[in-house]
Design goal:
- The complex is a heterodimer.
- Chain A is of the alpha+beta class.
- Chain A has a domain of about 80 residues: Beta Barrel (Thrombin, subunit H), CATH 2.40.10.
- Helices cover about 35% and strands about 30% of the residues of chain A.
- Chain A contains four helices and twelve strands.
- In chain A, strands 1-2-5-4-3-12 form a six-stranded antiparallel barrel.
- The N and C termini of chain A lie far apart (about 60 Å).
- Chain B has a single domain, classed as Arp2/3 complex 21 kDa subunit ARPC3 (Orthogonal Bundle).
- Helix content of chain B is about 75%, strand content about 5%.
- Chain B is globular and about 55 Å long.
- Chain B starts with a helix and ends with a helix.
- The chains are: A alpha+beta, B mainly alpha.
- The interface between A and B is large, with 46 and 42 residues.
Chain lengths: ~290, ~180
């Protein structure tokens, strides 16, 4: 019977372990861009993956349709009550919009933090081992996707792009535990806009943490949190979620609010990447530029 | 006849994993249940048991590397663990009776160990702060249930594919 661990194999195994540790420590460093062999692998696997994800999306689409058919009656009732309200709101929005453009023309302001070019993308895979909150999209730098761009669904912000290759891009979801993941946000709905940073995620409550709010400011539950655009990368006005609870942070100096995300992270298929029209700065969406950090 | 059947199955399973991963986490009674599809490693363990260790380790290394680069961005994690699990499977299987039941149980046991090692690794590099109890109830348990359903359904298919491939290979060797 051949022995499983001969001397030669033992040496090979040890060499393997050393190589492994070296590779892991290399890839765990915060790398700005992917190396060429990685890019080739990512593009090749991404192409294969999109072939497989298309039928899957088709099947989930059918389930969604059946699900919404079952709720048709209730939804119809609910929508009918909202319809009258809607007509009034629509007229008001139209009026405000035209007023806004007129005013902008008067002051000669063309670009706005709110403006962005949407890039439509499809989720081709979700990191299957689900330890890191990552999804992979079928659009890459060929279509103009760059690092740190905001990614959202129709209902709200879901994350930002962390890596791009020519045809794929990796998105880190906002529900990550990564401590360096910040989004500058603002609370609307009160008398005055309140600014803060989305920083961290409470995995047990499944809610985001809005930190660094001035302790004097009164916040109410149910107020909406949107991206402020002041971080330098995200456009302004992407819905993040609603406040569910307000407490004092661990140092007692500033307030902390729990924000329930507006978007659902579990079954993602079609997303929008927001390419901001206004010039972007390097680094993360927290006002710290790449130059400052290094 | 079909020389590329085994790599083809590996490739299909590799691409199936993230597709099934899209359905997770499942919300059952207000609890989030993470189901991690582990089709490829189960197939590789079967490959070790019924085909041979060398092929299994080679495929493990190759697909592990793809997995690392495309999904995890930590190179060397899966490309080490996949072959290591195959090696462990070969080691244990020499000491137990060979039939479909024992190989299924062994595969599931190794899968649990695999999940646990990954959990410890991610805890070590603090990518996760999940306590052990939560890990066992919301990740390991649902994952094991889902994967054992898959294995019970397809384990005998895997075995018959490998047995036919093996006999074909032996015939070929006999020809020359």
């Amino acid at each position: 019977m051949p022995q499983l661990l001969t001397n030669k194999r033992l040496i090979l195994l040890l060499l393997g372990v050393i190589l492994l540790v070296a590779l892991i420590s290399f890839s765990l460093r915060d790398r700005g861009n992917v190396s060429l062999p990685e890019q080739i692998i990512k593009d090749a696997v991404g192409a294969g993956q999109s072939v497989f994800s298309r039928p899957a999306h088709f099947v989930t689409g059918i389930f969604d349709n059946v699900d919404s058919l079952l709720n048709t009656f209730e939804e119809n009732q609910h929508l009918k009550t909202r319809l009258e309200e809607f007509a009034g709101v629509q007229a008001e929005v139209k009026d405000l919009r035209s007023e806004n453009t007129e005013l902008k023309q008067i002051v000669g302001k063309e670009e706005d933090l709110r403006d962005y070019n949407p890039i439509q993308a499809t989720v081709i895979a979700r990191n299957p081992d689900q330890w890191e909150e990552k999804i992979i999209l079928n659009r890459g730098s060929n279509e103009g996707v760059a690092e740190n761009m905001a990614v959202m669904t129709a209902s709200g912000l879901i994350g930002k792009v962390t890596l791009t290759t020519p045809t794929t891009s990796t998105v880190e979801l906002i529900s990550t535990l990564n401590p360096n993941y910040r989004v500058s946000a603002m609370v609307v709905g009160g008398a005055k806009d309140v600014y803060g940073l989305i920083e961290g995620y409470d995995a047990e409550r499944r809610e985001l943490l809005l930190k660094r709010i001035d302790a004097d400011i009164e916040l109410k539950e149910g107020e909406q949190v949107i991206s402020s655009g002041l971080g330098g990368i995200f456009p302004k006005g992407i819905l993040i979620g609603t406040i569910t609870e307000i407490t004092i942070d661990e140092f007692g100096l500033t307030k902390l609010a729990y924000v329930k995300p507006a978007a659902d992270f579990s079954l993602l298929d079609h997303v929008i990447i927001a390419d901001r029209v206004m010039p972007e700065v390097d680094g993360e969406d927290n006002g710290v530029t790449g130059d400052d950090e290094s | 006849m079909i020389r590329f059947l085994i790599p083809l199955i590996c490739l299909v399973l590799f691409f199936m994993e993230p597709v099934f991963g899209l359905f997770s986490p499942l919300n059952i009674g207000g609890e989030l249940n993470y189901i991690v599809p582990r089709f490829l490693i189960m197939f590789l363990i079967f490959l070790t048991l019924y085909y041979d260790l060398k092929h299994a380790m080679f495929y493990g290394l190759f697909f592990g590397l793809l997995y690392d680069v495309f999904y995890i961005d930590i190179i060397g994690l899966y490309s080490f663990l996949y072959p290591a699990i195959c090696l462990a499977a070969a080691f244990v299987f020499k000491r137990i009776p060979r039939n479909l039941l024992t190989s299924t149980l062994l595969t599931l046991a190794l899968l649990a160990i695999f999940e646990f090692v990954l959990y410890q690794f991610f805890l070590l590099i603090s990518l996760t702060g999940m306590p052990l109890g939560t890990f066992l109830s919301t990740r390991l348990w649902p994952t094991m249930v889902a994967n054992s359903i898959f294995l019970v359904m397809l384990g005998w298919v895997f075995k018959s594919v490998m047995v036919t491939q093996l006999s074909e290979r032996d015939n070929k060797i006999g020809l020359y």
